[in-house]
Amino acid sequence: MNDRPEAVDGADEEEVAAEPIELRPTREQVGERLDRFVADALPELSRSYVQQLIERGAVAVDGMRRKPKFKMTPGQVVTVTVPPVEPEEIVPEAIPLCIVYEDRDVLVIDKPAGLVVHPAPGHPRGTLVNAIVHHAPDIALAGSNRPGIIHRLDKDTSGLIAIAKTDRARTVLVPQWEERTVRKTYLALVAGDVPEDEATIDAPIGRDPAQRQRMAVQRTGRLAITHFRVLERFGDATLLEVDIETGRTHQIRVHLAFIGHPAIGDAVYGRGTMLRGVMLDRQFLHASTLGFKLPDGRTMVFSAPLPGDLRSALDALRTRGPA
To answer: 238: which strand partners?
Structure first.
């Protein structure tokens, strides 16, 4: 079984393959340094690691090697080839965790926004995995100290994430995600007044051919199904409860943008959509409910309240005047 299962919505930390990634600068990025442009486009890579890739010739502009300080111009095509992640020992780090549930097999965490889930090239530390192996040093998955990341969340998506601490747990949990029997509910504040009280978005998702660091609705993409219902309306914004059947990369964010109602604060798919009286430095997306069967046979449903920044955004909408 694959040790790196497909990510649930929004996995900035999805495995980086050796396949070249194509990036295209926009008018807003005229004159931007090559190293900064690549680091901003691929946030899972640190700027220092990007500079190393450039020096090694793993980054090209229109097929030519350039220096890190080379200036960007619209129309150029930047290709980035990231080598596969080399296996290495996970370094335990004392990063605070909000533990919702734990037994000898399973750990459920309420992940804060800003925390990367899995180490990646140029980002080997400061991740949720580093925190987990510090918290539970007796983890034994396939004879290693690596926890089982059953699904993942975006760096800037907060909420519930389940971790297998043992092979027994992984054997029980992974099939539930593969067979779509897991309850996965999110809260999302989106731009505009969504006309339907509830609806289903059934639109396949694949890698965006024009901007390889993004995902997009593609006819040749993989099956992706998202259900939503309206919880509250604010005129120029709508609070949704979202359930996903499938777990494609960035699924919720891509689907919401596809129907014309991107998540507030989503800088990738919503161009940082903001609202009067609402200040957010990340997308309003929170994994609020997670339900699945534990290895002991019990079915459990876990919940996580909105974090402070998202609660403040809602309070601002509720107390302001008409939009």
So the answer is: 190, 233
pLDDT tens-place string over residues 82-102: 876 554 678 899 999 999 999
Q: Domain residues of the chain, as ranges? A: 21-80, 99-319
CATH architecture of the domain with range 21-80: Roll (3.10)
Spatial distance between the Cα atoms of 33 and 75, rounded to a whole number of angstroms:
15
Predicted local distance difference test score (pLDDT) of residue 271: 74
Distance separating alpha carbons of residues 312 and 315, to the nearest angstrom: 5
101 three-class SS = strand
Pairing relationship of beta strands 183-191 and 285-293 according to DSSP bridges: antiparallel
| Phi and psi based region of residue 51 (left: phi greater than 0; alpha: psi -120 to 50; beta: remaining) | alpha
Point out the residues that are catalytic. 154
Annotate 49-68 with DSSP letters as a single string: HHHHHHHHT-EEETTEE--T
Residue 187: phi and psi, rounded to 5, are -110, 130
Count of positions (residues) in the chain: 323
With respect to CATH, is domain 99-319 assigned 3.40.50.11310?
no
- Tens of pLDDT along 24-63? 888 888 999 999 999 888 877 878 889 989 998 999 999 9
Is residue 100 within 8 A of residue 160, CB to CB? The reply is yes
16 has a pLDDT exceeding 70: no
Asked whether the CA dihedral 96, 100, 103, 104 is positive or negative, the reply is: negative
Which element (helix H / strand E) includes 314? helix 308-319
* Per-residue pLDDT at 4 exceeds 60: no
pLDDT at 322: 62
To 5 degrees, how large is the angle CA 96–CA 100–CA 104? 95
167 close to 140: Cβ distance less than 8 angstroms: yes
Describe the crossing of helices 34-41 and 47-56 by its angle, rounded to 10 degrees: 120
**Neighbouring C-beta atoms of residue 232, cutoff 10 Å:** 13
For residue 122, pLDDT over 70 is answered with no
Instruction: Give dist(CA 247, CA 170) in Å, integer.
Output: 17
User: Given the structure tokens 């192996």, which residue do they identify?
Assistant: 133
DSSP-derived secondary structure letter, 275? B
